[in-house]
Design goal:
Largest sheet: 5 strands, parallel
Number of domains: 1
CATH superfamily: Glucose-6-phosphate isomerase like protein, domain 1
Structural class: alpha/beta
CATH architecture: 3-Layer(aba) Sandwich
Oligomer: single chain
CATH class: Alpha Beta
Order of helices and strands: HHEHEHHEHEEH
Number of strands: 5
Length: 189
């Protein structure tokens, strides 16, 4: 297969997966309202993920703190993936499984929302973060793929992309999160 054919096939696959994902629109709308309500009450959105999902966590926190489409007041959002001193100290002293949970324990308050991104739903550090959030009284949402894995069962809101392809899952996680930011900006005018 030449490069143009490979690109065409990839775009067609993305379009099919996106079409299948439209069934999640009502659940995503509910989650958008949850984000907006969290922020309107003075809560914080916490984002976490591993690898490409860590980059998405940083990207999304930026959209809330700075802006997305419109100039507006900043919203409280933190990516738990960015402080290398915390990540390496927690990884070294407590184990990598605790790198996000420790931050949730330190920073999370009732009324905040932890948003986890995972293509598998099986990352031990995200499972630990979800459990820590529960203990601290945070709500937990997860953007998942591959059926949702064990994380799906322990979160309040699970958005599971109907795919096993990591890149398609991540692409649609970011698309849905951008649509949520748009809705949040509209709801918090």
């Amino acid at each position: 297969m030449n490069a143009a054919d490979r690109i065409t096939a990839g775009l067609e696959d993305l379009a099919r997966t996106a079409e299948a994902t439209t069934a999640l629109a009502p659940a995503v709308a509910v989650l958008a309202r949850r984000y907006a309500e969290t922020l309107a009450r003075g809560g914080t959105l916490f984002f976490a993920g591993n690898g490409g999902s860590a980059a998405d966590a940083q990207h999304l926190a930026t959209e809330y703190v700075v802006r997305f489409r419109e100039g507006r007041r900043p919203f409280a959002a933190i990516a738990l993936t960015t402080d290398t001193s915390i990540l390496t100290a927690a990884g070294n002293d407590l184990g990598f499984e605790q790198v996000f949970a420790r931050q949730v324990e330190a920073l999370g308050r009732p009324g905040d929302l932890l948003v986890l991104h995972s293509t598998s739903g099986a990352s031990p550090n995200l499972l630990a973060a979800a459990r820590a959030a529960r203990i601290r009284g945070l709500r937990v949402a997860a953007f998942l793929g591959r059926g949702g894995g064990p994380l799906r069962a322990i979160v309040d809101d699970a958005i599971v992309i109907p795919s096993d392809d990591v890149s398609r899952i991540q692409e649609l996680h970011l698309t849905l999160e951008h649509l949520i930011v748009e809705a949040v900006e509209e709801l918090n005018r």
